[in-house]
Design a protein that fits this description.
By secondary structure, the chain is of the alpha/beta class. Helices cover about 40% and strands about 15% of the residues. The protein is built from 16 helices and 10 strands. The chain has helices at about 1-15, 40-50, 50-55, 70-75, 90-95, 120-125, 130-135, 150-165, 180-190, 200-205, 235-240, 245-260, 265-275, 280-290, 305-315, 325-330, and strands at about 30-35, 60-65, 80-85, 100-105, 115, 145, 175, 195, 210-215, 230-235. It has a 5-stranded mixed beta sheet, with helices on both faces. The chain is globular and about 60 Å long.
């Protein structure tokens, strides 16, 4: 009798009739893209290094695409389940008839800085302390480096150039220069005069002595962008509909990461980022960790204000033909009640 009972339970577990305890579940393998290796990926890095993905029984395969655009395209193609990236491309994808959903806000403020080559700054009479409007007037005739043509850096470049009263590509050239080392090399060798991307790359150029800070969005230098869809967890609608438990677990892990960061000293946050940003000088890693905290979303909620401001920027950049509905592209249903 005992033997028959044991066989029954073994068969039930094998056939799925009895669920295994949560702590015995095999981790779910999940693929996710990110645009760049930078402080903007703080929630993802912390969720990985502090074990918040593991707590949710998730095993993440994270791929950096070297700039925005390819990350979203991989998601649309179904090559990955999620992308942690900027919301502007979700809006633009909808414009092309490709619907995606923002299910959690990781960063809700612009965290992209601009660096200008020191020789360009000298020739144009630019200093870091100049009023923003005066700096922007000096852009005429210059070239601006962005990561990819479809990345947030390209969208922000077009927005700022138009705000200065100039036409992109006519008065100011926009040039794709990649991310990380290639971005630095392009600016250092004056392939471009000024360039923008997420910290710590612009700060690295400044620390090496060949650039100055041109626009410090991390410190809120441009007051016209108080909120923004900076970094968000993005999924396809079919994933949200068919696998809501997976979405909820991903959202929980990333919101745990943000709460942990906001309750921790910056030096501990910097330590948690080290495995992913090992090549970043310690002082820049720490400075970026301290700066990013003010941009982290404390509860993961995507606000309608950030959605509308992002559309304002895309409109002014000449990229958005028709405004989108917040309810069509954003859901906060997976956040903790």
């Amino acid at each position: 009798m005992k033997r028959l009972t044991a066989l029954f339970f073994a068969a039930a577990i094998f056939l799925g009739g009895l669920a295994l305890p949560a702590n015995a579940q095999t981790p779910r393998k999940v693929k996710m893209t990110i645009p760049v290796v930078a402080h903007t990926m703080t929630p993802v890095y912390i969720a990985q290094t502090k074990g918040f993905f593991a707590e949710e029984k998730l095993e993440l395969e994270i791929t950096s695409t070297g700039g925005g655009g390819p990350d979203i395209r991989a998601l649309i193609a179904g090559d990955v389940e999620f992308s942690f990236t900027t919301g502007d491309n979700v809006i633009l994808a909808q414009q092309e008839g490709k619907r995606l959903l923002m299910v959690m806000s990781g960063l809700n403020k612009v965290f992209i800085n601009w660096a200008m080559h020191r020789e360009t700054a000298k020739a144009k009479g630019v200093t870091e302390s100049m009023p923003l409007a005066e700096k922007l007037k000096t852009l005429k005739g210059l070239s601006v480096g962005v990561t990819n043509p479809g990345a947030l850096t390209a969208h922000l470049a077009a927005f700022v150039i138009r705000k200065a009263g100039y036409n992109p590509q006519q008065d100011v050239k926009i040039v794709p220069i990649g991310a990380g080392p290639t971005w630095l090399a392009a600016l250092e060798n004056r392939k471009v005069d000024v360039a923008l991307t997420a910290p710590p790359v612009p700060e690295t150029a400044i620390s090496r002595g060949f650039a100055i800070m041109f626009i410090n969005n991390a410190k809120g230098e441009d007051p016209s962008i108080p909120e923004f869809l900076m970094e968000n967890l993005i999924a396809r609608p079919e994933t949200v509909a068919k696998d809501p438990d997976l979405v909820r677990r991903m959202v929980r892990a990333l919101t745990k990461a943000n709460r942990w960061a906001l309750q921790s000293p910056p030096e501990q946050v910097a330590d948690a980022l080290k495995p992913f940003m090992a090549k970043t000088p310690p002082e820049l890693l720490s400075a970026g960790a301290a700066a990013v905290l003010s941009a982290l979303s404390p509860d993961g909620r995507t606000s309608e204000r950030s959605f509308q401001i992002t559309q304002d920027i895309l409109e002014q950049a000449g990229l958005l033909k028709k405004r989108m509905s917040y309810a069509d592209l954003v859901t906060n249903e997976f956040l903790a009640k």
